[in-house]
Design goal:
Blueprint (H helix, E strand, L loop, with lengths): L4 E5 L35 E5 L10 E2 L10 E7 L15 E2 L1 E6 L2 H8 L18 H7 L8 E4 L8 E6 L6 E4 L4 E4 L2 E4 L30 E2 L12 E8 L5
Parallel strand pairs: 3-13
Antiparallel strand pairs: 1-2, 1-4, 4-6, 5-9, 7-8, 8-13, 9-12, 10-11
Length: 244
């Protein structure tokens, strides 16, 4: 799908020690809810527009982990209102696709054994025990990155690629855990509450964490996606994060 805007962000546990920029979360590895300055940070978040062949590339770090989840990336596909605002941002909560992509357990284990990832003291969750990954693979989906190492040492980097299609007949609204305004970042407090998750998400459950929650997808008048319109994410270098 050409000229769509693809947004990616590392999950909570974005960097090697489990910190997710631009939000406060109990699972954040650097002070949790008390790390107020983190609301105004935006590291390891990116957005790119696909080319005429539906390909987009990101040069980023391999994500870390946080308690309760395996290592993963969030991917959001914007089709409507993709023109950047005057401040060079896109403000659009209605999207065609939101999902998560995962990594081979062997690769995760090897990277987690290297510094600074090895300094992350949060409990790890294996792929086989991750509830969202289990849900995604229940219908024979393959949400894993393909990859090759760029050298004999993992610190030389990893070249990863992932392909997926977008159902263009549906769209849905998303609910963020936090938003950034001119005056600074603010936590969202109006998301629906989910029993048992108040401590982790005091402002309500964000859609980006679990796409099964939030407002239901609605059918639109956009024609079904064709084979030529299949969106493909190109191979993108993933490098180990340097120690701070």
């Amino acid at each position: 799908m050409s000229h769509a805007v693809l947004e990616t962000k590392h999950p909570p546990g974005a960097n090697s020690t489990g910190v997710y920029s631009g939000a406060l979360a109990v699972v954040n590895g650097n002070g949790g809810m008390s790390d107020k300055p983190n609301l105004n940070k935006a590291f390891l978040r990116g957005i790119q527009q696909t080319d005429s062949e539906g390909v987009v590339q990101f040069d980023t770090n391999f994500p870390g982990h946080y308690v309760g989840r395996t290592t993963h990336l969030h991917i959001i596909t914007h089709v409507e209102d993709t023109k950047a605002k005057e401040n060079n941002t896109i403000w659009n909560s209605q999207v065609r696709h939101i999902g998560q992509a995962f990594f081979d357990q062997t690769l995760i284990n090897a990277i987690e054994a290297t510094a600074p990832y090895s300094t992350n003291r949060q409990a790890r969750t294996a792929n086989k025990n991750d509830a969202i990954l289990i849900q995604e693979t229940a219908n024979n989906a393959d949400p894993f990155f393909e990859y090759v190492q760029l050298g004999t040492n993992l610190k030389d980097g990893v070249f990863g690629w992932f392909s997926f299609g977008v159902n263009m007949t549906y769209s849905r609204s998303i609910m963020a855990v936090a938003q950034k305004f001119k005056e600074g970042g603010k936590m969202v407090t109006t998301n629906p509450k989910l029993p048992g998750f108040d401590a982790m998400f005091p402002g309500g459950f964000p859609t980006a964490f679990q796409p099964g929650f939030g407002s239901a997808a609605v059918e639109t008048s956009v024609p079904s996606v064709t084979k030529e319109e299949e969106q493909r994410e190109a191979p993108a270098p993933l490098t180990l994060e340097e120690a701070e």
